[in-house]
Design a protein that fits this description.
- The protein is built from three helices and eleven strands.
- Strands 1, 4, 5, 8, 9 and 10 form a six-stranded mixed sheet that branches. Strands 3-2-11-6-7 form a five-stranded mixed sheet.
- It is globular.
- The protein is mostly beta strands.
- Bound molecules: ligand MTE and molybdenum atom (MO).
């Protein structure tokens, strides 16, 4: 028996929730490969482009009119910090894809400022990914990707593109910013897929 028994507030979070090689942080580090782009909502748009070239477009008002969800997720950065139980609000990618006809296998995600990342389209589906616009009950700050970022918490956090601008669906996989630089094409923290070949 453990000394700490589960209480009414739920199970204690700890090392069992940490993927291999990770440590816990309480703060929320900012990791950005370049300067923080300042995108005003009135100048913001999000596009989903299919493999046949059909472009679906949401401006800020149209995006915010979509149904959103509150989710609490653990984050795992490849630089080894993990943050447990982070609270977000966002639009599920499933919602964005409702009227998008596609048979593509891959998604290439691009951001304001030039960042990009790639992942299988199926990892964006089935309640696994959101375009998040709120963190911990507040508007998402510019440093953390505001006005809106991708959130794909089951993969290393470099897949969660901040300042997201577009998702291009494709039959072929195209490496993004860190994937081109030698990071893993998939990035499962539980399998410690940090670098290409891991
Ligand atoms: N546009 C953009 N998105 C990005 C990055 C970036 O440099 N630019 N860094 C990635 C990496 S490596 C991590 S760990 C997380 C960090 O998110 P945070 O700064 O909110 O902690 O954002 C990811 N998304
Ligand atoms: Mo990262």
């Amino acid at each position: 028996m453990g000394i700490v028994s589960p209480g009414f507030s739920g199970r204690r979070r700890g090392s069992a929730d940490l993927p291999p090689g990770q440590y816990l942080v309480e703060d929320f580090p900012v990791l950005s490969a370049g300067p923080t782009p300042r995108v005003l909502p009135e100048h913001w748009e999000l596009t989903v482009t299919t493999e046949t070239g059909v472009v679906h477009r949401w401006d800020w008002d149209a995006f915010r009119a979509l149904p959103s969800e509150e989710v609490t997720k653990d984050l795992h950065c490849v630089t080894r910090w993990s943050k447990l139980g982070t609270r977000w609000e966002g639009v599920a990618i499933d919602t964005l894809l409702e009227d998008v006809e596609t048979a593509a296998d891959f998604a290439f995600v691009s951001s304001y400022g030039g960042y990009s990342t790639n992942l299988p389209l199926e990892d964006l589906r089935d309640g696994q990914a959101w375009i998040a616009f709120s963190y911990d009950g507040e508007d998402l700050s510019p440093e953390h990707g505001g006005p809106a970022r991708l959130l794909v918490p089951h993969l290393y956090l470099w897949k969660s593109a901040k300042w997201v601008r577009g998702i291009t669906l494709s039959d072929t996989d195209q490496p993004g910013f860190w994937e081109t630089a030698g990071y893993h094409e998939y990035g499962d923290p539980w399998r410690e897929q940090r670098y290409a070949g891991d």
